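As a representative case, the lines below give one protein's residues and fold tokens.
***
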Amino acid sequence: MPDPRTEPREGRSASVFFILVTLFLDILGIGIVIPILPQIVDGLVSGDAGEAAFYYGLIAASYAFAQFLFAPVVGGLSDRFGRRPVILISLFGAGLSYLVMAYAPTLTWLLVGRLVSGVMGATITTANAYIADVSTPETRTQNFGLVGVAFGLGFVIGPALGGVLGAVAPRLPFFVAAGLVVLNGVYGLLILPESFRAEQRRGFSWRRANPVASLLRLRRDRVIAVIALAYLLLGLSQRGLETVWVLYTNYRYGWEALANGLSLALVGVVAAFVQGFLIRKIVPRLGERRTVLVGLGFASLGLLLYALAWQGWIMIAVIAVFPLGGVAAPAMQGLVTGRVSASEQGEMQGALSSLLSLSSVLAPLIFATSLFSYFTSDAAPVILPGAPFFVGSLLALTALLVLARQFARLPEQQDVSAPERTA
């Protein structure tokens, strides 16, 4: 097949559209269970809010831990066999995992379902490599922004639908998610084209697929290493928000599944606007580096305001501010993508996905199991349910300062994607 980087613009646009629809349906399946998963855990534990938060954090971390282990494996497999087969296998496997969770009679079976779902959650890794395959240097950040749109729209409809379905029956969203993901797989089987030329592929190596070795390879390039650190810090702050949102709003404002689903849907609407439209206006004017810094500043500010919100309507108002931080991640991905060859895109996206997965492993343990559980318990010196948001704001601010220092060392006229390898 022709090289996606040189094929007509119409072909590249169609390929991007295919993968975005695939991601949208996949994220819809994930988002649909967010409002009801804490309720399922609470029903299986039959404990208080602190105990439910503890086990919920462990189960959420198990999903991310599986992704952390397998993201570089999947990235390496997509560099060897192509993006299309890896995406399709992952989707059908995810459908099976939702059925396991739908029928889970105990926390152990729920954990098994989440682990399988995490292993099959490789769609994101390979989809990012797919986007890199069909992007040019001029369009890469905008295309990664469109990935954010797919995520945003999936989380607009998913949590809202999950809240409505969860109000009917707590397990119903799992069955619907399974059907949607399988439908997604059938859709991809019929029309999703391959993006990666056979002659560009390379052999699979278990040594490279080791998640620790994959992360250590990020150190080969000084700029990538610093961006990766900031990417991890931002990921921790964002995953912390997602992990604690339902616990926090239920504890502090008494919101139930429907209210949480609709509020998360609003977050998705604003995020889709920011990453689908606003980022296309910001990057050409500010450049990728300044876009990253602006995004991190808004992320830090938004989390701080969430922590200070004393009434539910303030949370809704802050939603207009926090998603502006969504321009940072796609801009960072664009910077990293420009520093590696086509044959390394799957491996690099696998490493970045491992970072996000690592943040998703740590975030539930830090923000839910530790911070929220402790600061809403009798053992806390002061009841402070907003503690996770204060910590998240500090992490985003740290990422901003780290990157600002690194960018200041580069000549103003130098494109950050120009190779600058270290020994």
About this structure: Confidence is low (pLDDT under 50) at residues 1-11, 413-423.
